[in-house]
Amino acid sequence: MTAEDLAGRVAVVTGAARGIGQAIAQALIAHGAWVAMWDVDTSAVEQAAHALGAAAWPCGVDVTHAEAVHTAIRGVVDRFGGLHILVNNAGICPMTPFEQISEPEWERVLAVNLKGAFLCCQAALPFLRDAGPRGRIINISSVAGQMGGVSVGVHYAASKAGLIGLTKALAHRLAPYGVTVNCIAPGTTATEMTAAWPREDLERAWARIPLGRLAQPDEIAAAVCYLASDQAAFITGATLDINGGLYLR
Ligand SMILES: NC(=O)c1ccc[n+]([C@@H]2O[C@H](COP(=O)([O-])OP(=O)(O)OC[C@H]3O[C@@H](n4cnc5c(N)ncnc54)[C@H](O)[C@@H]3O)[C@@H](O)[C@H]2O)c1
User: Can you give the pTM of this predicted structure?
Assistant: First the structure.
């Protein structure tokens, strides 16, 4: 890919203040896109966007709030004149054992990881349809959504499996417009999310990876840029596994 591949495209990346989301925003900008960086942590996303220059536009958005999401989408379209790429990346990953998951915690995880993507897709839909064959939705799922995970909470795994279903369902519905909808399922990635894991959980995850290391956020971001590009226009409803060969074992 070249620095011009996404020139003139407008993207929204949720959960962009740090980690994988920040890397995605940075990579999209490096390929020529304008990027609205959303995060519930307003000051952190403002700082992250400042570091990426004029093509980054930060906004404090909690993806679980329908009205905030709709207002923010409208703000993006008013500012940039359209929307081509939506990356649903915001997520939380409690490690609570199954027996101890409270109903509010279950609902919070599903709200951020799955309902948030639903709300963003629904608000973005008319503008993505207008974008036609340049329209893209890219959902950040997880290996946990594919195979249940090992240390992460079952609510997290359920929400990430739900994202894969949402991806396929929307891929069907948006195909007539040329808009593609895909998922990326990263394996354990070196971010603040996993840095907060108990050491034994991180070591257990690491030990299962044939390539012998964690993913780096920019490796996930590179796949997002590919799926957002014209070269990937015939890929839809897919889940791209980026996990160092985890399923080989
Ligand atoms: N790190 C991994 O090993 C890994 C593996 C597979 C999938 N993922 C997924 O990738 C995505 C990014 O993970 P990460 O490791 O960069 O996480 P992270 O915790 O470092 O960053 C997540 C970001 O999402 C934001 N966020 C949380 N709730 C939000 C909300 N309600 N509205 C808007 N923003 C919100 C946080 O403030 C934070 O900036 C997540 O969806 C995660 O589940 C991560």
Answer: 0.98
